């Protein structure tokens, strides 16, 4: 779908997760990277294959972020793997099973005909278009995790995310099992402090997608030393624009950051570049990459097909 759109409209292409990363970058602490490729007057933002881009950070913005190393289940990477696993499963468990699914006009572009559709995670993709000034046509692939039907039959789209408690000693001593029902505000305030960047990204993604609601699940370990079993303690639902105000996320500022990044990238020569968040400073850097760097197998196959077509044309 993105390839089709690139041939017909738009000159900047990205996913909601990539744009949210850039738009909320002032809150990030850990390092991350994004690939940007300029082809003619078009820009394509993408993530590296097999990178940790999709892993959810845990307590990234806390005063004392996780410091365990090696194979400890409380090491930053293992906590990220755990949080990502929980988030994926919770988003599916919130959906009604066995009933008729809400369907968009076009099928899921990532589901092939020979795949068992019942085993594919339920998610909807929406392609949205923004004009940033007179010269930038932005095409974004956004995601919805589910839909809700109101009393009058109106449909509302929902983004579903999960906050997870891994050790209450590292959450300002707020034990979710004891405080979630009586002091939910205190629990959320602690999460806003410890996971400011993650929550801002989720909110930004929901607003980019046009979702009417952002649903947060509170999930805790069954036992503090067991990272494999978890318990759902509660849920909370927000309207993304109201939640953005609550967490001091200015979308005007976020769009300004994105426009600045796009303007910088449009001034680059044709080629592939790496946008890297400096691991030690609140700075993002742009590095030029040699041809073929971080190319996926699909890109290499497409290039080979194009070369074969050119050879056939020359022979004819």
Automatic annotation (TrEMBL):
<feature type="compositionally biased region" description="Acidic residues">
    <location>
        <begin position="296"/>
        <end position="316"/>
    </location>
</feature>
<dbReference type="Pfam" id="PF05091">
    <property type="entry name" value="eIF-3_zeta"/>
</dbReference>
<dbReference type="GO" id="GO:0003743">
    <property type="term" value="F:translation initiation factor activity"/>
</dbReference>
<keyword id="KW-0396">Initiation factor</keyword>
<protein>
    <submittedName>
        <fullName>Eukaryotic translation initiation factor 3 subunit D</fullName>
    </submittedName>
</protein>
<feature type="region of interest" description="Disordered">
    <location>
        <begin position="289"/>
        <end position="316"/>
    </location>
</feature>
<keyword id="KW-0648">Protein biosynthesis</keyword>
<dbReference type="GO" id="GO:0003723">
    <property type="term" value="F:RNA binding"/>
</dbReference>
<dbReference type="GO" id="GO:0005852">
    <property type="term" value="C:eukaryotic translation initiation factor 3 complex"/>
</dbReference>
<keyword id="KW-0963">Cytoplasm</keyword>
<dbReference type="InterPro" id="IPR007783">
    <property type="entry name" value="eIF3d"/>
</dbReference>
<keyword id="KW-0694">RNA-binding</keyword>
């Amino acid at each position: 779908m993105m390839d089709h759109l690139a041939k017909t409209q738009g000159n900047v292409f990205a996913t909601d997760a990539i744009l949210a990363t850039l738009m909320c970058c002032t809150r990030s602490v850990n390092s991350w990277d994004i690939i940007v490729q300029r082809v003619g007057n078009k820009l394509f933002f993408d993530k590296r294959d097999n990178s940790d881009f999709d892993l959810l950070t845990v307590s990234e913005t806390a005063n004392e972020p996780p410091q365990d190393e090696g194979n400890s289940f409380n090491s930053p990477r293992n906590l990220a793997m755990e949080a990502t696993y929980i988030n994926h499963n919770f988003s599916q468990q919130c959906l009604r099973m066995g009933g008729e699914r809400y369907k968009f006009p076009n099928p899921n572009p990532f589901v092939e005909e020979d795949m068992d559709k019942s085993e594919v995670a339920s998610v909807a993709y929406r392609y949205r278009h923004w004009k940033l000034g007179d010269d930038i046509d932005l095409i974004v692939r956004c995601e919805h995790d589910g839909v809700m039907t109101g009393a009058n039959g109106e449909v509302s789209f929902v983004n579903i995310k999960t906050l997870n408690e891994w050790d209450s000693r590292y959450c300002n001593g707020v034990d979710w099992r004891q405080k979630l029902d009586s002091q939910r505000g205190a629990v959320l305030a602690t999460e806003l402090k410890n996971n400011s960047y993650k929550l801002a990204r989720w909110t930004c993604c929901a607003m980019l997608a046009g979702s009417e609601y952002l649903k947060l699940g509170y999930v805790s370990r069954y036992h503090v030393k067991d990272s494999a079993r978890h318990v759902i303690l509660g849920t909370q639902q927000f309207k993304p624009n109201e939640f953005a105000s609550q967490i001091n996320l200015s979308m005007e500022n976020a769009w300004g950051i994105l426009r600045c990044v796009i303007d910088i990238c449009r001034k680059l020569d044709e080629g592939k570049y790496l946008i890297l968040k400096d691991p030690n400073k609140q700075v993002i850097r742009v590095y030029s990459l040699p041809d073929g760097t971080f190319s996926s197998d699909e890109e290499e196959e497409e290039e080979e097909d194009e070369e074969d077509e050119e050879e056939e044309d020359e022979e004819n």
